[in-house]
Write a structure and sequence with these properties.
Structural class: alpha+beta
Helix content: 40-55%
CATH superfamily of one domain: Acyl-CoA dehydrogenase/oxidase, N-terminal domain
Order of helices and strands: HHHEEHHHHEEEEEEEEEEHHHHHHHHHHH
Oligomer: single chain
CATH architecture of one domain: Orthogonal Bundle
Number of strands: 12
Largest sheet: 8 strands, mixed
Number of helices: 18
Strand content: 5-15%
Length: 602
C-alpha cells in the first residue's frame, strides 16, 4: 500500500489563494492565526499523519479492536499514536486557549482533520466524537460540569462519545427507551442499552465521557421527551482525580464491513444500581443539545468522504504509474505501457482528482463560513454566514461521502483484479468509505433536511444567495480571456448547472407546499445536483485564482495550469450531471408508489 502524503500544496492553494483564509486572522479571537502559523501547523500535521498515524492504517485494519475480559484493546500502536496526538495539542487545535485549546480557526482544524482521517480513518473517529462532545458541553453544560470535564476533553486526555441509537429504534431517536431517574443529590441514574457507539470503550485514554440520550419519568413521547446526560466511565473526585468505575460496560463489539480498528460498541448502562449521570442542558431538550454535537459531526463525516477519496487516489495513482499492461498505439509487440497512459484509466484518475479538489473546496468554504459566523463582529454577517453553514452542512456530509464511496470504488477499478485482493490495500479504502454515508443521519436524511428545512430557511435567502454567488463567478469567468478557452468552457458548464439548480430549487419550494412526497422523492437527486454545482463553483474559483497567478508569471511547475485543466475536466465531465438531474428531481412521487409493497418482488 502506498504511504500517505498530505496534499499540502493543494490545501494551501485552496485556503490562501481561493478562499482567502488570511481574512480569518482579522477576526476577534483568531488573531493568532497568522499565515505563517497556519502554514507551520499544516506542515507539522503532515509529518504527524505520515509518520505516526498513517502507518497504522493497514495493521489496524488487519488486527482490529478486540473485547478481552470486558475491556477493549485497540490495535498495536494506537495507544502510543494517540498519546503523540494528545501531547502535540492536536485535539484542541480549534478551541479557545482559556479552555485548553490552541485558539486557531475551525477551518484550519478541518484541514488537519482531513489529513488525520485520510491517513487513518479508524483512528480519526475517536477525536471526532470527542470534539463533538466539547461543542455540546461548551454550549449546554452547567459551569460545574464544564469545570470538571471540559479541559480534559479539549486536550484529548479524556475522550467523548455520542450515545443515541438503540437496538429497536435505528434512526428513529424518538423511540428510545433508556431511562434517567433523578436522585436526591441532583444526579441521575441511567439505565438502558445503546448500539453503534464509536469508541464506546478503548484503552487509549484514562476516562471516557459518554453523552447519553434518555427519558425522565413522565416525559412527553417522541423526541420532545428526550434529555441529554453526561455519564463518565469513571466518576471524578472533587480534586479532579478519577474515582470509582461507573455502572456501565461494553458488552460486545460489532463485526463490521470496514473501520475494523475502530471499536463500535454495544453499551449497557445501569446493570446494577444505575449509571451515575448529570443533566446537560434543560430537561426534555436533549435533541437540541445533541444536534450541537451532530451538526459538528456531520461536517467532520463529510471530511471522511473527502479524506478516504484522497487516500484511495494516492494509492491508485501510484499503482497506475508503476503497473505496465497493454500497449499504446505505435508501441512494438514486445513493449508495454504503464496503465496511466490508457484513456479509460486516465479518465478514472482525472475523475478522482477533480472530484477530490471540488470536495475540498466545498468543505473548506463551509469552514470559512463557520469561522465567520462564530467570530465576525457584525451581527448581520454572522447571521448570513450561519445560514451558509446550515445550508452547506447536509451537502458536505452527503455529497462528499457519496463521492468518497464512488472514488474509492474507482480506486479498486484502477487496480483491476488486484484491487479486489486485500493485500494491495485498495479494498480497505472501499470498505472503510462505506460507513460515511450512513453516519450521523443517513444521506437520505441529509437530503430531506436540505429540501425540507434548508431550502426554505430564512425565507430561502441562503440558497438564493448561493445561486447568486455562483452567477457572479460565471460573470468573472466571462471577463477573463485565456488563449485556450478553458475559462469559457468552465463558464458555459457552470452556467447550465446553476440554471438547473435554480429551476430545481423553485420547483421543490412549490412542491413542498402541496405534496411532501413529491418533494421528498426528488430530495436525494437535488442534493447531488447541489453538490455537483457547488463543486464546479469551487473549481471555477480555483481556475480564476490560478489564472491570476499565471498572469503574474507564477508557475514554475505547471501547478496553476493543472488547476485550470482540472476545473475544465470537471466542467466537461461532471457538471453536466446537474442539468441531467433536473428531470429526476421534478418527477414527483407517483411512480415510486405505483407498485404495491406486496408486489415489489414480482
Amino acid at each position: 500500500m502506498a504511504d500517505y502524503q498530505a496534499p499540502l500544496r493543494d490545501m494551501r492553494f485552496m485556503l490562501n489563494e481561493v478562499l482567502d483564509a488570511a481574512q480569518l486572522n482579522k477576526l476577534p479571537g483568531l488573531t493568532a492565526a497568522t499565515p505563517d502559523v497556519i502554514d507551520a501547523v499544516l506542515e507539522e500535521a503532515g509529518k504527524l499523519t505520515a509518520g505516526a498515524i498513517g502507518p497504522l492504517n493497514t495493521t489496524g485494519d488487519q488486527q482490529g479492536s478486540r473485547l478481552i475480559d470486558g475491556a477493549v484493546k485497540t490495535p498495536d500502536g494506537f495507544k502510543e499514536a494517540y498519546r503523540t496526538f494528545v501531547d502535540g495539542g492536536w485535539n484542541g487545535l480549534a478551541f479557545a486557549e482559556e479552555i485548553g485549546g490552541q485558539g486557531l480557526p475551525f477551518t484550519v482544524g478541518m484541514a488537519v482533520t482531513e489529513m488525520i482521517t485520510s491517513s487513518n480513518l479508524a483512528f480519526s473517529l475517536c477525536p471526532l466524537l470527542t470534539t463533538g462532545a466539547v461543542e455540546a458541553l461548551i454550549k449546554h453544560a452547567t459551569p460545574a460540569l464544564r469545570d470538571t470535564y471540559l479541559t480534559k476533553l479539549v486536550t484529548g486526555e479524556w475522550t467523548g462519545t455520542m450515545n443515541l441509537t438503540e437496538p429497536h429504534a435505528g434512526s428513529d431517536v424518538g423511540a428510545l427507551r433508556s431511562r434517567a431517574q433523578l436522585q436526591a443529590d441532583g444526579s441521575f441514574r441511567i439505565t438502558g442499552t445503546k448500539i453503534f457507539i464509536t469508541y464506546g470503550d478503548h484503552d487509549m485514554a484514562d476516562n471516557i465521557i459518554h453523552l447519553v440520550l434518555a427519558r425522565t419519568p413522565g416525559s412527553p413521547p417522541g423526541t420532545k421527551g428526550i434529555s441529554l446526560f453526561l455519564v463518565p466511565k469513571f466518576l471524578v473526585n472533587d480534586d479532579g482525580s478519577l474515582g470509582a468505575r461507573n455502572d456501565l460496560r461494553c458488552v460486545s463489539l460489532e463485526h463490521k464491513l470496514g473501520i475494523h480498528a475502530s471499536p463500535t460498541a454495544v453499551m449497557s448502562f445501569g446493570d446494577n444500581d444505575g449509571a451515575v449521570g448529570w443533566l446537560v442542558g434543560d430537561e426534555n431538550q436533549g435533541m437540541r443539545c445533541m444536534f450541537t454535537m451532530m451538526n459538528h459531526a456531520r461536517l467532520a463525516v463529510g471530511l471522511e468522504g473527502l479524506a478516504i477519496a484522497d487516500r484511495a487516489y494516492q494509492h491508485a495513482l501510484g499503482y497506475a504509474r508503476e503497473r505496465k499492461q497493454g500497449r499504446r498505439p505505435g508501441q512494438g509487440a514486445e513493449e508495454s505501457a504503464a496503465i496511466i497512459d490508457h484513456p479509460d484509466v486516465r479518465r478514472m484518475l482525472m475523475t478522482m482528482k477533480a472530484t477530490i479538489e471540488a470536495m475540498r473546496g466545498v468543505a473548506l468554504s463551509a469552514g470559512i463560513a463557520y469561522d465567520m459566523a462564530k467570530n465576525h463582529p457584525d451581527a448581520a454577517s454572522r447571521a448570513e454566514n450561519q445560514g451558509l453553514v446550515d445550508l452547506l452542512t447536509p451537502v458536505v456530509k452527503a455529497w462528499c461521502t457519496d463521492m468518497g464511496v464512488e472514488m474509492a470504488s474507482l480506486g479498486v477499478q484502477i487496480h483491476g483484479g488486484m484491487g479486489f485482493i486485500e493485500e494491495t490495500g485498495a479494498a480497505q479504502h472501499y470498505r472503510d468509505a462505506r460507513i460515511a454515508p450512513i453516519y450521523e443521519g443517513t444521506n437520505g436524511i441529509q437530503a430531506l433536511d436540505l429540501v425540507g428545512r434548508k431550502l426554505t430557511q430564512m425565507g430561502g435567502k441562503p440558497v438564493d444567495d448561493y445561486i447568486a454567488a455562483v452567477r457572479v463567478t460565471c460573470a468573472a469567468l466571462r471577463g477573463v480571456k485565456d488563449a485556450d478557452g478553458h475559462l469559457a468552457t468552465i463558464e458555459t458548464a457552470l452556467g447550465a448547472g446553476v440554471d438547473a439548480l435554480e429551476a430545481a430549487s423553485s420547483w421543490l419550494r412549490e412542491a413542498m407546499a402541496r405534496s411532501y412526497d413529491d418533494a421528498a422523492a426528488g430530495a436525494t437527486n437535488y442534493l447531488r445536483m447541489f453538490g455537483v454545482v457547488a463543486g464546479g463553483y469551487m473549481l471555477a474559483r480555483s481556475a480564476l485564482a490560478a489564472q491570476r497567478s499565471l498572469d503574474d508569471g507564477g508557475d514554475n511547475t505547471g501547478f496553476y495550469r493543472n488547476k485550470i485543466l482540472t476545473a475544465r475536466f470537471f466542467a466537461e465531465q461532471s457538471l453536466p450531471q446537474a442539468a441531467a438531474l433536473l428531470g429526476p428531481v421534478t418527477r414527483g412521487a407517483t411512480t415510486l408508489y405505483a407498485i404495491e409493497p406486496e408486489l415489489m418482488g414480482a
